[in-house]
Amino acid sequence: MESSPRQNLGISAYHWLKRDIIRGAFQPGEKLLMSRLKERYDLGIGPLREALSQLVAERLVVAISQRGYRVAPMSLAELADLYDARAQIEAMMLRLAIERGDDAWEAGILGRAHTLAKVMEVNGPDELLDIWDARHKDFHTAIVGGCNSPHLLQVRETLFNQVERYRHLWLRETVFSDEALERKRQEHAALVEVILARDAERAAEMMREHLMTPVPIITEVMHRRGLA
């Protein structure tokens, strides 16, 4: 069944507003004035309310009783908790993937690692960030996909959505630095090697360490920008 034009507008509003919040067009704690949103996205109140309700569920927006909406605050405590939760669940899912994954799972990891490591011709910094980020997500999703648990994958996606504002601060510090990108490439190559060797304990430990490396970088950026 095809979606209605109204549904499509709501989906568009959600994606545009989420992207702008993640990229810092709206600051943590900033009030989201409906008049400003209508003008920015050229949309009516209905689709915008649908988008805001979805973003409240994802904890990117906070509903203020009878007074509209604000961008959710950011904090070092939330940063630490979200990244620790992600690292713990990703390590657990990797253990299961090593136990359950087949040859097709291994091939999928190798293919995405190769695509991620390739040098890309792009039209500008934002395109580079988008392409690297998408390929990076695909690489990590391919790794944990071998756990064959839709429910665990859903929990992981929820955490990923909540951490995206923090991740974006790290991405901008990493993707535009050749040195940082090379360091990530080496981490990914080492991780793949241990995964293919089916060393579950070492792989889980390496995954936890790998996923926690952005935290000090994000902490420094948050202090620099007055977000902490």
Rounded to the nearest angstrom, the distance between the terminal CA atoms is 46 Å
* Backbone CA Rg: 19 Å
The major sheet is characterized as: 3 strands, antiparallel
Q: What does the overall shape look like?
A: globular
Order of helices and strands: HEHHEEHHHHHHH
Q: Which strand order does the major sheet show?
A: 1-3-2
By helix and strand content, what is the structural category? mainly alpha
Indicate the mean pLDDT. Answer: 91
- Helical fraction equals over 70%
Low-confidence parts lasting 5 or more residues at pLDDT below 50? none
How many separate helices?
Answer: 10
Q: Approximately how much beta-strand content do the residues carry?
A: under 5%
Keywords: DNA-binding, Transcription, Transcription regulation
InterPro entries: GntR_C (IPR011711), TF_FadR/GntR_C (IPR008920), Tscrpt_reg_HTH_GntR (IPR000524), WH-like_DNA-bd_sf (IPR036388), WH_DNA-bd_sf (IPR036390)
GO molecular function: DNA binding
Domain HTH gntR-type: 7-74
